[in-house]
Amino acid sequence: MIPDPDALDVVLWVVLPYIVLSLFVVGHVWRYRYDKFGWTTRSSQLYESRLLRVGSPLFHFGVLAVVLGHIGGLVIPKDWTGAIGVSEHAYHLMATGLGTIAGAATLAGLAILVYRRRTVGSVFSATTRNDKLMYVMLTVTLALGLSATVVSNIIGGGYDYRTTISPWFRSVFSLYPDPALMAGAPMLFRLHVLSALLLFGIWPFTRLVHMLTAPLGYLTRPYIVYRSRDAQLGSRAPRRGWERT
Predict the structure, then answer these.
(1) Percent of the chain scored above 70 by pLDDT?
(2) Cα–Cα 20 to 30 A to 8, which of 50, 59, 112, 162?
(3) CA 9 and chain centroid, separation
(4) How many angstroms from the chain centroid is the CA of residue 190?
């Protein structure tokens, strides 16, 4: 039985989502218009690459799987998967198994990246306050999501979030949000959603903006020409096309 929402539920599940959506959209427009040079990952690969080679792929591929899983679980209605022959039991096993693996991989990659940023002096010196807040919010959101999956679906008897959280998520975008759906969700799931909302609220003001852009300009930009200032070019003749000008 879904409980009736109170005033706090209305604030959390009706008002807050639209505040976050406004910040997300307006923040990106503002950032792109007034801070184009800051729209970057601020790569620190030059400072340290050994830990980065392990942590970065683990985090990025893990978070990609997490995002795809959330899109499938939140956007696609339960009836649609049933209509194509995917039973609730099969969906539950797939979502729980893959979600747990993806979440654990993402957290492991994030832990390596945070350890690298904290222990490598040059990388730590390039870390801003926004970076620190971003890492905290990422860690909290991922940890709560993984905990909710493990506690409810592996340790516990299982929880079908597609009957509460998913319809609430879609109701926000249809402009008819139903806070009663979230009022009946387990506490860990509600905390996970709240942390995700806060993460999306600060998203436009962090280096996470790079996730919304694709470097398509690299496909058409001209080559960078490097010219030597040294009068002595060496004993071998330069290759054709590389003659000094």
Answers:
(1) 86
(2) 162
(3) 25
(4) 18
Distances in whole angstroms, Cα of residue 61 to Cα of each of 107, 111, 112, 189, 225: 11, 14, 14, 23, 33
The answer, yes or no, to whether residue 218 has pLDDT greater than 60, is: no
Those residues with Cβ within 8 angstroms of residue 13's Cβ, 6 or more apart along the chain or in another chain: 5, 168, 177, 179, 181, 182, 183
Q: Are 148 and 188 in contact (CB under 8 A)?
A: yes
**Distance between the two ends of the chain, CA-based, in angstroms?**
79
DSSP the chain: -PPPP-HHHHIIIIIHHHHHHHHHHHHHHHHHHH-GGG-S----TTT--HHHHHHHHHHHHHHHHHHHHHHHHHTS-HHHHHHTT--HHHHHHHHHHHHHHHHHHHHHHHHHHHHHHHHSHHHHHT--HHHHHHHHHHHHHHHHHHHHHIIIIIISS---GGGTHHHHHHHHHTT---HHHHHTS-HHHHHHHHHHHHHHHHGGGSGGGGGG---GGGGTSPPPPP----S---SSPPPTT----
| Distance between CA atoms of residues 116 and 50, nearest Å | 9
pLDDT in tens, 7-57: 999 999 999 999 999 999 999 999 988 887 777 777 777 788 889 999 999
153 contacts: CB under 8 Å, gap ≥ 6: 92, 96, 159
Question: What is the spatial distance between Cα 90 and Cα 103, in angstroms, rounded to a whole number?
Answer: 19
For residue 33, give the amino acid letter: R
